[in-house]
From TrEMBL:
Location of the region described as Disordered in the Swiss-Prot/TrEMBL record: 483-526
GO CC annotation: Golgi apparatus; membrane
Protein name, UniProt field: GOST seven transmembrane domain-containing protein
Alphabetized Pfam families for the sequence: GOST_TM
Keyword Membrane: yes
Its membrane topology: Multi-pass membrane protein
Membrane-spanning residues: 228-248, 260-277, 362-382, 403-422, 442-464
Stretch forming the signal peptide: 1-29
Keyword Signal: yes
Organism of derivation: Escallonia herrerae
Keywords: Membrane, Signal, Transmembrane, Transmembrane helix
Location of the GOST seven transmembrane domain: 224-470
């Protein structure tokens, strides 16, 4: 055999062990790092977004607010921790002030839940909303001019939280002492650093913030996926056990098509396992390993590409109706390479080094080519499937026709469900612009993995390894009676099966030339 299950398992097992045992560089994820990040001008304020994550309420009682900062891990507590936060203003802005001045510039750290977003800022006389308090707003709202406008939350008068940081004298830097803000209510939390002082234009910031949930450092939207990938790993392991038991039992009669199915199962198993390890490492340390993330994204892109090529090849009759794809091989491979590159780029943008619980604009831009290629795959698959069904009907191959009808029904159901789910996903995101339903967002990602696994199970059932699969696959039966005898031999392995298959081989020799000519003509037309 050119391609067996054991070498594939050995290769991926070795790769997995090397990945997990090696020292891997990490990208800060739940640990948000600011390396001289600039403030940008928004309305009458200068602001810097510090992050946005879904955080569950603390399971334990937070320590007193006056308690000194310490670096111990607070099991069961949720918080946002500030470490080594330093603000830097320009030398020209610092030189405007005397060495004897006390407070020469104000920066405010603002933390609020998405539900309280309207409690930040105000609008004089119903005009454009302002973040900072102006002279008119000071009269209307009772706020302090030159500071961020804050209204108490309806559920907790202590929220939103604002922490003041002052520049002293003519210093160029101001420091926020290391502190923690404990989260006692589940929600989507946003952090902003804001200055209302026009003299602080060009402000930059350094330091880190660390966001923690009760069970670890995974952002709230990602946390349920860790348990999901455990379940999917066991599901793929069970499918692998069933498939490989048949694979080893009938290894002498394995089709090339079944080798491809084996590759998809192995890729799926290692993808789900690697996702779990990646999320577990992230949850325990707060840092996201770029090495594991890049590898799992690449394996996922390969798995999706091979899966689509497998379905396309099956739809063309490869391994069952025709021995090769003929002149279409180059076109199929070119489409596969293009899809792999588009999928790899999209998922690297979405997952590698991801920090916040909010999808970026770059992902929305990269989704388009990926979606167009998927649409092209679907069109080509159903066009090829229709031609294959016509050929089988013309040749009266009832057993193969029955298999392909079941396959086409499963494929049609998958496409219909996919389109419906895409519509739901668009609705979900359009009606939740501030990610307030973040606790259920993980289902959007999980659904596609479940759907792909379900379709793979159907393909495994229809093309499971059997005693007569190799000889039966390429037989060309012209009568219903012979086809039924072949199906009985394939399914039950009866003593009459050998006689039936010998008859089929004789017919195959007589029909082979004409069938190959028909396939060649079809390839030229496509």
């Amino acid at each position: 055999m050119d391609f067996g299950g054991a070498p594939v398992l050995y290769f991926f097992a070795t790769a997995l062990l090397l990945l997990l045992s090696s020292t891997i560089k990490s990208a800060n994820a739940s640990i948000h790092v600011y390396d001289r990040d600039p403030f940008r001008e928004v309305g009458n304020a200068y602001l810097l977004s510090g992050g946005s994550e879904g955080i569950a309420a603390s399971l334990a009682t937070p320590p007193p607010r006056k308690r000194a900062f310490h670096s111990a891990t607070h099991d069961g507590l949720s918080y946002i921790r500030f470490e080594n936060i330093t603000f830097w203003r320009s030398k020209a802005a610092a030189d405007h002030h005397s060495k004897l001045a006390h407070s020469t510039g104000l920066i405010q750290v603002v933390i609020f839940e998405a539900a309280d977003r309207d409690n930040i800022g105000g609008s004089p006389y119903g005009g454009q909303k302002s973040i900072c308090c102006t002279a008119d707003l000071a009269k209307l709202e009772g706020c302090r001019q030159g500071e961020v406008i804050k209204k108490p939350s309806a559920t907790d008068i202590n929220w939103p939280i604002i922490v003041d940081v002052h520049f002293g004298r003519n210093y160029q830097s101001a420091h926020l002492r290391n502190t923690e803000v404990y989260i006692t209510k589940t929600g989507m939390y946003n952090l902003f650093f804001i200055s209302c002082d026009p003299e602080l234009k060009g402000l930059v910031m350094t330091g880190t913030t660390l966001w923690k949930n009760p069970d670890g450092y995974l952002p709230g939207r990602m946390a349920p996926l860790m348990n999901f990938y455990v379940i999917m790993s066991f599901a793929y392991a069970l499918l692998s056990l069933i498939w490989f038991s048949q694979y080893v039992r009938f290894w002498k009669d394995i089709l090339q098509l079944q080798h491809c199915i084996t590759a998809v199962i192995v890729l799926g198993l290692f993808e789900m396992t690697l996702w779990y390890f990646e999320y577990a490492h992230f949850n325990n340390t707060g840092a996201r390993p770029v090495g594991i993330t890049a590898w799992v994204v690449t394996i996922g892109a390969v798995r999706r590409t091979v899966s689509r090529l497998l379905i396309l090849s099956v739809s063309m009759g490869y391994g069952v109706v025709r021995p090769t794809l003929g002149g279409l091989t180059t076109k199929v491979l070119l489409l596969g390479i293009t899809y792999f590159l588009a999928s790899e780029l999209l998922n690297i943008t979405e997952y590698v080094g991801t920090i916040n619980d909010v999808a970026g604009r770059a992902r929305l831009f990269l989704v388009l080519p990926d979606a167009l290629l998927d649409a092209f795959f679907i069109l080509w698959i159903f066009t090829s499937l229709s031609k294959t069904l016509e050929q089988l009907q013309a040749k009266r191959s009832s057993v193969k026709l029955d298999i392909y009808r079941k396959f086409s029904n499963a494929l049609a159901f998958t496409v219909i469900v996919s389109v419906a789910w895409i519509g739901y996903e668009v609705y979900f995101k359009a009606t939740d612009p501030f990610n307030e339903r973040w606790q259920g967002a993980w289902i959007i990602t999980a659904f596609w993995d479940v759907l792909a696994f379900s379709l793979l199970c159907v393909i495994c059932y229809l093309w499971a390894p059997s005693q007569s699969s190799q000889r039966y696959a390429y037989s060309e039966v012209t009568g219903e009676e012979s086809d039924d005898e072949a199906s009985q031999s394939l399914c039950r392995g009866s003593p009459n099966g050998d006689v039936s298959l010998v008859k089929q081989e004789r017919r195959e020799k007589s029909d082979e030339g004409s069938d190959l000519e028909e396939a060649a003509e079809e390839d030229k037309r496509e």
